[in-house]
Design a protein that fits this description.
heterodimer, A: 559 residues, mainly alpha, Cytochrome C Oxidase, Chain A, 2 strands, 67% helix, B: 378 residues, Immunoglobulin-like, Cytochrome Bc1 Complex, Chain D, domain 2, 3 domains, five-stranded mixed β-sheet, elongated
């Protein structure tokens, strides 16, 4: 039982300050050549945040331009580049890596009781690939950017666009390998490096959802790489693949593109769902309802997600029968998402719910994901999507899923594990205020867009009919509130690093393995290999938590 | 979208299937509201009721329930199937043009819509149609993808280079409705639009007669077929030429040298002009040269219309309305020249007005665009 004692008492031990991963070396090379998954996660945190800021600046420009019906702040030429670059930066360089590469990288080894990922060097390589791909893309943006839309539809992208299509395409191509290698690393790690006693069904659901995400990354990303390659062949060598003028088929591009990009939508939401499962269960201090159903629904989403790409193409001349199959499967893929929402809600029943900031994000997520998911049904219904596709309805829908879903989950996860990552506590007051501002700002930004979409406002329009201005003003007003909400965490997070209170190892007294090591953890994660003897989400004494001790230790000073 | 309310919430309904799309929309709103309100209410109730009583207390020992999991998988599945079926039914109506339609040809190009009535009238970024008539648009594009979208009709269809797509509607209410390009097409994408004018039949007839028409597509096609491109030297009427006679071909199954059969529709005729060796009719040699790069999309539309007219009854003039004004255009006979000149559509008071409504940001720069060379060499 020595191990268990070591785990339980770790909060009392004052380890050597040199002993945590942040103090293990201060030189630049100790960071840039690190093989520690936690330091690599920090590298990702910094670089992904830069891209988030960049994508956010583009978003602000879009909303400011759309304040008036005329194309006045930005000319069409600029506007087309701005929305394209907003999409590319946000999708490929923020949403896809955000949760897996930052939180997943940091937490998967901790959660399964491993010292690191299976391939630490490949992990570092993934980050460098990401940086090279990102730098190339940013370079192309500075040179003049790209104006094809993030979807790169042919033949516009191969024949007509005079922008930096190839440089950005290459950036995305390179970046794809970062995803593939990260996914590979996660899968091997989860298979081979679980601590003794950490069976598959004792894994936190965060790990399950990352397993599903990794499957999609490995199987889907090569397809976008191939697609970009074909695009390059046509654009550079004039080999007719997509442009009918030289014998190609423009619809083929759409098939290939969405064969990756629809599953990629699940790369962008599954990790968020994993975070939410953690938040809801941990802050209800109750075993998650229907563990196996949530775990397998992630796998089901990953599998079915590969079979629904054609629902992006209902008006592209696809046969009605193909359309029917895709519509049917799109309805089917909605079920596992619904199952998750019902299980999260049921988890709250008879829980011991606390209202900490991460939980606020968890609850907001469910509400917004509900709207995002249900409006997905609108778009899966063929007769309705004929009217809705390519309008602001679809813009609102995917922002509800991507921002209301993934970004809120990312922020919730960042707040939840911030003390573990940095060893510091942030301001509970300001974090709650920020969460509420973000929630209000988000809804004000995107809800009016559903109405705009049904009214018929097409997406990617620099100018629009005057009667639609009022709703656009709401949306822009909401966007400024959202922007304020997103800046507040930046301030209190940075503040906490320098002035924040020191975090205990396990501030909420939770059973997960990541909470059974110091905050921040030592470089090797655990001083001794943990042995797992409790089921997932056991909040009682049977999981080895000393609740009485925790009450005296954490509550007394506050009271 | 011509409501006067301060915040518009709902677009105008102006086609026969608009109400069906709207019914589906409200059905989905009802379902969404039911689940959203139900679940959010449950969450709020649980969060308030089960707020932690004591720090670090453990929630109830509930692990799950197979019964509930089954229930909340099957019920959403059934509901989603009703949505699926509703969607298919409505889509079927939008997708399948009925038999007795009035046909209009549409060619999209960066960044304008060129409409061509079978009676010879041409329009740019405007489409005049009679109310309560089934209209079928046969569409293609000279360059990139576009999408013909009329929100009031609740329908849209991508316009794809290298093939024909169709869109149909039957307008139910006279009026002026937004026409948008809904597929991103480059620089002036948001300017590629205009209006669809739905008119009473009488007004439409007036509009037709008051608008100078150029050659009808059939006439222009005949011109190309017999003179400009010289198709008729091989495709003779009497089956003695090197190529098959095209009289009566349209709409019939053709037997190919490969043993397959293919329906001679718009798409097939288009492909046979651009890629003649692709599908050879049985009994003929693959000797026809390609006309790729020599004919514009509009000329192709005319050729198809002409060959179609040969199939309709062997006559060469199935479109009666426009023949009287043939040759009046300053640009001469070919479709291509005609399309370069706005003069093919005589200025009329109501047209002039609609173009001077400069307050509309979507109003394209009609006149300026159309005097630019229509042919874009790549």
């Amino acid at each position: 039982m020595q191990n268990i004692d070591a785990i339980n008492n770790v909060g009392n031990v004052r380890p050597d300050p040199k002993d945590n991963y942040l103090t293990n070396g201060f030189s630049l090379s100790s960071w840039l050549l690190t093989k520690d998954h936690k330091r690599i996660a920090i590298l990702y945190l910094l670089s992904v945040s830069v891209f988030f800021l960049l994508g956010g600046i583009y978003a602000s420009l879009i909303r400011l331009e759309l304040l008036t019906p005329q194309s006045d702040l930005l000319e069409s030429a600029t506007y087309n580049r701005v929305f394209t670059q907003h999409g590319i930066i946000m999708v490929f360089f923020f949403l896809i890596p955000a949760i897996p590469a930052i939180l997943g990288n940091f937490l998967i080894p901790l959660m399964i009781g491993a010292k690191d990922l299976a391939f630490p060097r490949i992990n570092l390589l993934s980050w460098y690939i990401y940086i090279v791909g990102g730098a190339l893309t940013v370079w192309a943006l500075l040179q003049g950017g790209v104006d094809t839309g993030w979807t790169f539809y042919t033949p516009y992208s191969t024949t007509f666009s005079n922008s930096y299509v190839m440089a950005v395409g290459l950036g995305i191509f390179i970046n794809g390998f970062s995803s593939i290698l990260t996914g590979l690393n996660f899968i091997v790690t989860i298979h081979t490096m679980r601590a003794p006693g950490m069976t598959w069904f004792r894994l936190p659901l965060f790990v399950w959802s990352h397993y599903a995400t990794s499957l999609v990354m490995i199987l889907g990303t090569p397809v976008i790489a191939i697609t970009v390659l074909l695009l390059a062949l046509e654009r550079l060598a004039r080999i007719g693949i997509f442009d009918p003028a030289i014998g190609g088929d423009p619809i083929l591009f759409q098939h290939l593109f969405w064969f990756y990009s629809h599953p990629a939508v699940y790369i962008m939401i599954l990790p968020g769902m994993g975070v939410i499962s953690e938040l809801i269960s941990n802050f209800s201090r109750k075993k998650i309802f229907g563990y196996e159903y949530i775990a397998f629904s992630s796998i089901a989403i990953a599998v079915f997600g590969f079979l629904v790409w054609g629902h992006h193409m209902f008006v592209s001349g696809q046969s009605i029968y193909a359309g029917m199959v895709f519509s049917f499967l799109s309805m089917v893929v909605a079920i596992p998402s619904a199952v998750k929402v019902f299980n999260w809600t049921a988890t709250l029943y008879k829980g011991q719910i606390s209202y900490d900031t991460p939980m606020l994000y968890g609850l907001f997520f469910i509400g917004l994901f509900l709207i995002g998911g249900l409006t997905g049904l609108f778009l899966g219904a063929m007769g309705l999507t004929v009217h809705l596709t390519d309008t602001y309805f679809i813009v609102a829908h995917f922002h509800y899923v991507m921002v209301g879903g993934q970004v809120l989950a990312y922020l919730g996860g960042l707040h939840f594990w911030w003390s573990k990552i940095t060893g510091k506590l942030y301001s509970e007051f300001w974090s709650k205020i920020a969460a509420i501002i973000i929630f209000v700002g988000f809804n004000l930004t995107f809800f009016p867009q559903f109405i705009l979409g049904y009214l018929g406002m097409p997406r990617r329009y620099a100018s629009y009919p005057e009667e639609l201005q009022v709703l656009n003003i709401f949306s822009t007003a909401g966007a400024s509130i959202l922007a304020i909400g997103l800046f507040i965490p930046l301030i209190y997070f940075i503040h906490s690093i320098f002035f924040g209170k020191k975090a205990p190892a396990n501030p909420w007294v939770l059973p997960g393995l990541e909470w059974r090591t110091t905050s921040p953890p030592p470089t090797e994660n655990f001083h001794e290999t943990p042995i797992v003897f409790w089921e997932a989400y056991e909040f009682g004494e049977e999981s080895g938590l000393d609740l009485e001790d925790a009450r005296t230790k954490y509550i007394a000073p506050a009271a | 979208m011509q409501e006067n309310s301060w915040v518009p919430l709902f677009p105008e309904q102006a086609s026969t299937f608009a109400w069906q799309v709207d019914a589906l929309y409200f059905y989905l709103i009802a379902i969404s509201a039911f689940f959203t309100i139900g679940i959010v209410a449950a969450i709020i109730f649980f969060v308030l009721k089960y707020r932690e009583k004591e720090k670090y207390a453990t929630g109830a020992e509930i692990h799950g329930s197979i019964g509930l999991e089954t229930l909340w998988s099957i019920i959403p599945f059934i509901i989603s199937m009703t949505i699926f079926l509703g969607g298919v039914l409505v889509y079927y109506n939008q997708y399948r043009p009925p038999a007795d339609t009035m046909e209009i040809y549409v060619v999209g190009k960066q960044w304008m819509w060129k409409m061509q009535h079978t009676t010879g009238q041409r329009e740019i970024n405007e489409l005049h149609v009679p109310v309560n008539r089934k209209i079928k648009l046969t569409m293609t594009t000279e360059d990139v993808l576009h999408d013909f979208f009329v929100p009031a009709f609740r329908t849209k269809m991508d316009v794809i280079p290298g093939r024909y797509t169709t869109l149909w509607f039957e307008a139910t209410k006279p009026g002026k409705y937004h026409l948008f390009c809904a597929e991103y097409c480059g620089l002036n994408h948001s300017g590629m639009g205009g209006y669809v004018y739905v008119m009473e039949q009488r007004d439409f007839d007036n509009w037709l007669s008051g608008t100078v028409s150029g050659q009808t597509p059939v006439e222009a096609g005949k011109d190309l077929f017999e003179a400009k491109l010289g198709c008729a030297s091989c495709h003779q009427q009497n089956d003695q030429g090197r190529g098959p006679t095209l009289t009566g071909v349209y709409g019939k199954e053709q037997k190919l040298t490969t043993g397959q059969t293919v329906l001679a529709d718009d798409e097939y005729i288009r492909n046979s002009i651009l890629n003649p060796t692709g599908q050879i009719v049985e009994g003929y040699q693959p000797i026809m040269p390609t006309f790729k790069g020599q004919v514009t999309e509009e000329q192709l539309v005319s050729l198809v219309a002409y060959i179609k007219s040969l199939g309709a009854g062997g006559g060469t003039n199935s479109a009666a309305g426009g023949s009287a004004t043939t040759g009046n255009t300053s640009g001469g006979g070919t479709m291509n020249n005609a399309s370069n000149s706005t003069g093919t559509i005589a200025p009329r008071a109501d047209r002039g007005e609609s173009n001077t409504q400069g307050s509309n940001p979507n109003a394209p720069r009609n006149q300026g665009e159309t005097t630019a060379p229509a042919d874009r060499k790549r």
